[in-house]
Amino acid sequence: MSLDAAAAIPMPLVHTVELNAGIVDTDSGAQLYADWMWAPSSFDRAAVDRLSRLWLQALAGICAHVRAGGGGLTPSDIAPARLTQPQIDELQRHYAIADVLPLTPLQRGLLFHAGTVQGGDDVYAVQMQLTLSGELDPDRLHQAVQTVVDRHPNLVAWFCDHFEEPVQIIPAAPVAPWSYVDLSAGPDAERDVEAQIQRVCAAEHVAVSDLAREPGCGWR
């Protein structure tokens, strides 16, 4: 921390006391840097030293509160999305949220069409079917999908249109919607496998239209 009176600076101060703070990367990790400047005609060094100690104590209290599970998002955290604090609090009562983002014009249009389907067939919902050869390792495939979602959590965002402007909610702990369907077992094993696949795909196609309850991406 730097405490400097403004006497050596050949220009007037904008404020009686000024604080510039930031995080600096060092060999031992990120460090908080704070630079205090003040008008010596109004404050002496002892007063500013006490002010700086109180400021650090307040920061330590905030850190302790967050480590204990407190805290949460505020409107400035989610800019450029525009929600009030009560609206953010309402979302956080239902979701563990990492971020809230506004929708692009294309997303707005797709969300509108998904909402008009009401459990029907959304023509804008796209399915991709992949055929894998060789021995299948379901756990490894599942982990690969989860790794993609960990890197791109927007793939499993929820959408909320309850406010003045719709928003997408990025989960704090993204989970890839995954289910494993074994068509080689059960009473339908002897039936046409292709027909069973089409039934599974049709059911999934309908499910993704409810973007407020389910992420837009799923893997079956």
Number of domain modules: 2
Give the CATH H-level superfamily of the largest domain.
Chloramphenicol acetyltransferase-like domain
Instruction: Trace the largest sheet across and list its strands.
Output: 1-3-2
Put simply, the count of helices is: 5
Biggest sheet overview:
3 strands, mixed
User: What CATH first level of the largest domain would be assigned?
Assistant: Alpha Beta
**Strand segment tally:** 6
CATH architecture of the largest domain: 2-Layer Sandwich
Oligomeric state as shown: single chain
> Level of helix content?
25-40%
According to CATH, the fold-level topology of the largest domain is Chloramphenicol Acetyltransferase
Domain Condensation: 98-200
GO molecular function: catalytic activity
Protein name: Condensation domain protein
Pfam family, one: Condensation
